[in-house]
């Protein structure tokens, strides 16, 4: 199984972060073992806030293997940006399973809920042109601190999540299943992020758990998440 992480700033992480990708790598190591999977993708960098560019390799754990750092994630990138490139990426990376966390940046800066949902559908369709048997796990948008003071934005987040659930129901197929992961259990933007948006260590564990548990429950892949906050 070849996993490809797709996401925005919550997934790529910044210099010094462990990232939820690191937590997922630990989970895959523990449940699938060496040689039972691969992590793939065209990028390995973290975002460097001083350079305002993805130039850093300073992960929280320097022992995080280079081969497991691969991803398709970008600071400020959303469904709008990933839909046009996912087919070529899946083809080049020979990806089997996409773990996708996108949408917040779209709704915040680029597109409304209807347009964002249309881009999510286009993303799935494009991925299937490269691998007709691709499997996808999609994470709903987790409203960030802006939603607490911006009611229209909060409403758009809620509406997008409804539209995303409908898209998953429409697009799910036996040959290419699409899962909607649950919102991470217990996720609190005031304690699980460092700024109301981006995950800190506890948030990283909760995000990884949402994907891991969805795959295990639906497909029998790996096992239940047993990271630091699995029982929290």
Automatic annotation (TrEMBL):
What parts of the sequence cross the membrane? none
Q: Which residues form the SGNH hydrolase-type esterase domain?
A: 5-204
**Protein name stated in the entry:** GDSL-type esterase/lipase family protein
Species for this entry = Streptomyces atroolivaceus
The organism's taxonomy opens as: Bacteria, Bacillati, Actinomycetota, Actinomycetes, Kitasatosporales
